[in-house]
Amino acid sequence: MKIEICANSYRSAINAQKAGADRIELCSELAVGGITPSYGLLKRVMDDLTIPVNVLIRPRSGNFTYDDAEFDAIKSDIELCKKLGCNGIVAGILNKDFTIDINRTKALINLSRPLSFTFHRAFDWILNPRTAIEQLANLGVDRVLSSGQESTALKGITLLEQLQEQIENRLIILPGCGINKGTILQFKHAKFKEVHFSATALYKTIEAPKVSMHTERFFDETQVAISDFDKIKEMINLVK
Questions:
Q1: Measured between alpha carbons, how far is 37 from 55 in angstroms, rounded to an integer?
Q2: Predicted confidence (pLDDT) per residue in 177-198, tens digit
Q3: CB under 8 Å to 213, separation ≥6 — which residues?
């Protein structure tokens, strides 16, 4: 069984390699499900790691339905990853009705080649996973990262096993989310070829700050935070 570590920092990536992981998925901001890492982090990791590095390409938190500018940003980040010699791309695009955006996903797969392509946990929002897994196999996706549409991969292991049986060797089902030392053997016994986890531990670095930088309302996945034209214009007009 191959081990992929979801690494959210340089230190996480180095720890994964030293501990014997087979591959990492590099990202930032685990609290929102991960977003694209910065160029600086990506460059440093690529300079120092010898194990394969797959990179999460997700331009923002929230949903997985993107406008043209966001789609262009995704493509630019994929091109950067290819130039830096990354092993693979982790991405995915949905329509508003929670189906796969076939055309855009196909475009990203083609752009990513010869790198591997993992369709990420946007899959866990899809209403018909059995149909979707066939679509992704037909598109040429190499693997699908999924929790089996549950809050943890262990809770979703039945669906994951069903998808693995359905799709056979056409792509890899990559279980991920909440897998730990108490549950990992269940995935090995279920004969999954790969498994994904972060093995996160929290380390206190400072005392509680005077002012928190967290904004709870931004964690609502049904909404996307955007600087509003009318609000900007109104406030500029007040002072200009």
A1: 8
A2: 999 999 999 999 999 999 999 9
A3: none
* Assessment of whether the complete model's pTM goes beyond 0.85: yes
Q: Is 204 left (phi over 0), alpha (psi -120 to 50) or beta?
A: beta
Cβ distance 90 to 118 under 8 Å? yes
Give 207's DSSP letter.
Answer: P
**C-alpha dihedral, 214 to 217 to 218 to 222, nearest 10°:** 160
Q: Tell me which amino acid residue 86 is.
A: C
Q: Where do the domains of the chain lie, and which CATH numbers do they carry?
A: 2-211 (3.20.20.380)
Tokens of 30: 């685990």
Q: Is 167 exposed, middle or buried (0-12, 13-18, 19+ CB in 10 A)?
A: middle
